[in-house]
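Crash report, auto-generated. Payload:
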Amino acid sequence: DTAVSQTPKYLVTQMGNDKSIKCEQNLGHDTMYWYKQDSKKFLKIMFSYNNKELIINETVPNRFSPKSPDKAHLNLHINSLELGDSAVYFCATAGRPNTEAFFGQGTRLTVV
Amino acid sequence: AQSVTQLDSQVPVFEEAPVELRCNYSSSVSVYLFWYVQYPNQGLQLLLKYLSGSTLVESINGFEAEFNKSQTSFHLRKPSVHISDTAEYFCAVSAKNRDDKIIFGKGTRLHILP
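Recovered output after restart:
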C-alpha cells in the first residue's frame, strides 16, 4: 500500500492545454507539498499545505493552482501549459513542515 | 532562513572505494539535517537524519553522516561503495523549533566506476 501516490506517472501534452496531477497520502500527515525537479535535478518547492490550508507559495505563476479537498489529497492543476513547465513534479508529505518528508514517485510532465 | 550547499555536483568513485559527499549549511537557529537518495526514475527516499543526540547517524545500508556544529557540516560517508549506490544524493536542512519548510541542496550525483 503506497504511502504517497501520484497519478499519472507520465503526462505528455501540448502547449496551451490544462492538466491536473493528483496526489494521495495514507500516512495521516498534516503537511503536504508540491516540488518541481528540473532537468538538472534541482528540487524547488512550489507549495506547502498544512491541514488543507496553503502556507507556502514560492512565487509560482498563477497558472499553477493547488487544491486540497481533504487532508489526504493535494492536487495540482496547471492552466495554459508552457514548454518550460516540462519537469518532474513530486508530491510529498510530512508530519510537520520541518520534519522528514515522504515523497511520491513523481509525475514526469512533458509539454510539446 | 536556512540554506544548504553541496559543493560537488558529481562524484565519481571506484566500486569498493570509500566516498564522502560534502554538505554545508547556514542557519541562525538550531537545525534538523537530512540526507535523501534518489535512484534513477524514482522519488526521493530518506537515507538518514539528525534531529538531536548523537552527532553520528547511520543508515541501514552502510552510509553514515556526522553533524559538526562548529563547521556547520553534515557530510555523508560510506567506507565501501557498491554499484547499486549509483544515485543522486540530496542534503537538506530545516529549522528545529519552527514549522518551516525543508530546504534542499542542489544534489550530488554519485557515479560508481566498475
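Post-recovery validation: Chain B touches chain A through 24 residues (CB under 8 Å).
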